[in-house]
Amino acid sequence: MLRVLDHPLAAHVLTLLRDETTKPAAFRTLTHQVTLLLALEATRDLATKEHPVRTPLEPVTGRALARGLVIVPILRAGLGMVQPFTDLFPDVTVGYVGLERDHTTAVARNYYCKLPPLAGKRVLVVDPMLATGGSAVQALDVLCEHGATELGLVCIVSAPEGVAAVAHAHPGVPVFTGALDRGLNARKYILPGLGDFGDRLYGT
Q1: N or C, where is the chain less crowded by C-beta within 10 Å?
Q2: Distance CA 181, CA 194 (A)
Q3: Element at 196 (helix H, strand E)
Q4: Helix 160-169 and helix 134-145: axis angle, to 10°?
């Protein structure tokens, strides 16, 4: 269920995101660009329904989205991926799951959760980095507890360890990612990765 973005613009943007000299303002713009591509890929199979309209010349039956979309960023880095979805989808709703990673143990703790109704909706968790998979699995667990049945995970960079953890805990949940990197270092950071995404996004 792993789907790696295959687009020359995505490769270009990811290279600039990885560059340690990229400043926060440019980093945020690049994040928006690659998330836009990921959003299109992750919603390629959204259900549509017939929708009649009248053009300036004649009536025509087109297609419209059949149901709502929910995105759930994992705080705080996931916030950088929200706007492309809200720009693209008129009926999107946004929930939030707050998970804070302990840099010593690499285990995340849940400190916040605010979700809209999830039943009958496509629900996409957005988090830039899929490293160990611990945060993603916790977020998916929470969403399942709140009634989500059609889930996906959207990440900018992923490690094989994180992809495997998600596949083990939530088989069948697709993972959409901009890149599948080599692996994790001893501190559980992705290699080659791009460093601490939240810190680079917000200049902290």
Answers
A1: C
A2: 10
A3: none
A4: 30
Phi and psi, residue 155, nearest 5°: -135, 155
Per the CB < 8 A criterion, the answer to whether 198 and 76 are in contact is: yes
* CA distance to 45, 56, 62, 63, 199, per residue, from 195 (Å): 32, 52, 45, 42, 8
43-88 tens-digit pLDDT:
999 999 999 999 999 999 999 999 889 999 998 889 999 999 999 9
Q: Are 125 and 148 in contact (CB under 8 A)?
A: no
Count of domains for the chain:
1
In the numeric block, which tokens belong to residue 114? 């605010």
Q: What is the CATH number of the domain that holds 179?
A: 3.40.50.2020
Domain holding 51, by residue range, is 2-202
At what angle are helices 24-42 and 8-18 packed, to 10 degrees?
150
pTM of the model: 0.91
- HSE, CB side, 13 Å, CA atoms: give it for residue 12: 5
Residue 43 identity (one-letter amino acid): T
